[in-house]
Amino acid sequence: MKSVFTTIRSLILINVFASCLLLTSRADNNASPGENLSYDTLKIFCSEGLNELVNIWTEEYSSLNPGFRFIASAPVEVNQMPPNSLFFITEGGAGMDYQDEGLRLVIGQSALVAVFNAQNPSAEAIMQQGITSEEISGLFSSKTRWVDIINGGHDADIKLFITGNKESEMLLKSFCRNDITDKPGGEAKKIADVIHAIGCDRDAIGFCMLQDIKKAGITANTGNIKLLPLDKNSNGRIDSFEDIYSDTESLTRGIWIGKYPKSLCRNICAIVPERYDDKSIDAFLLWIMNDGGKYLTVSGFSDLSRYARESNISILAGAKAGSVSSNEPSRSGLWAFLISLVALTGILLILIFGAKRKIRKITPSGVATNALPFNEQTVSVLKGIYFDKSHTWSFMEKDGKVRIGIDDFLQHVTGTLTKIKFREPGENVRRGEKIFTLIRNGKQIDIHSPVSGIIREKNISLGEDSAMINRSPFGDGWIYIIEPVNWEREIRFMFMSEKYKEWIKDEIVRLKEFLAAVLTPGRLAYSPLILQDGGELTDNVLADLEPEIWEDFQRNFIDKSV
User: pTM, whole model, 2 decimals?
Assistant: First the structure.
């Protein structure tokens, strides 16, 4: 034991020495505001609508870094991307489809929103019910009256106004899936004219970019113009999770966590060619992530969430560490030696403690290498069974007994399970009671029973192989067989497959809200393990989070479902 501690102490001393050399070597490479560094001229390109934002960024950054030189130009085609250049684009714009061309960061978001006149006689009903995507599409295919889309609405023709720019038209056309230019009575105007027209016409609906609404000074529903709610799940009402239309700040947050239709949103991206050695690019982007983000909201765009910003900083830090200037061979050799030394130290530590602790491999960006997106398309749904809000399923066998298990959503959240805690056969259970416990490496959540009855059998195979639930949640991973006592009444509270699919979309949004709430400043290290670019969840999102977050998940997600 003494020799082990001696080895560890030696390794620590080696690492301290190596760290000092690393910091000394790094001192000349870090660009910070106020340093008069020698930069090459950076070529900056931006797509239509981003000119004002990019101008603000370059002016502010130049005032802090007098050595920063740049040339701003209109965008070019992908095959014309020059080296050491930086592109700011609106993703999906015409002629701006940059894919797999190098470093790509989502740095903000724009969205098309609908507004209406606050004096509309049906205003209260509009805010309570909202309008569906089908109803919006119908506005551009035939003449529509308010009474046609709002239950109890007044009988008057709806007049449409659209901001006359390519981005608005593209988003609206994509959302409606038809040509919006032939709508009788619809008018394309400049943003100021659209806002004026909506303010003067109580029966009008306007479609504007969110940044234009903010620039016009419309931040809350207290003036003559209100944000028009969209009924995302088409159930005829604005549910609590859809209630993001009280002000532009709430709407902006709702957009980032997925409460707003994706087809009405566009990511703002920074694109860097695959090979670049201009350190001013990383320095400029790091400044945007740290201090420049506030100018997104000043310009009317949606800023990044805290966890998305931290993820980008990790990516940039990885890219910066991985690029070595070709005119510094001696420093390159030093870095190679030091990195090898640190790597060797890490290997020795793993050999010492590897039997006691599993190591999760992380990429330079801070995201798990096996990280996959988790969304409603990822969740498997089996037809012919009942699904419950407790994230369980039930199926009545031919003998009248009910087999139950967990749904695919839950196993995607927890990751691979290591143990199941059962109640015993013969015990009585009631619907809504905690009936079993899912455990992963000591962290656990209790699951509520979907049915009332007597437990007749438990799946003893799960005692030896709990991960069978992850591999086959609807098959070999079943949990109990229960003799039901109130089956016909209790299935009224459950879903069949089609309604379950719609409900899962809401659960994905609710999960994002939960994760956004628990990511306190002290937990920012988990950010890259939770959300990917564009707000997509990472698969097995709870797997490596701390026990306290699992407890929060129990109280604020699982228990609130039933």
Answer: 0.53
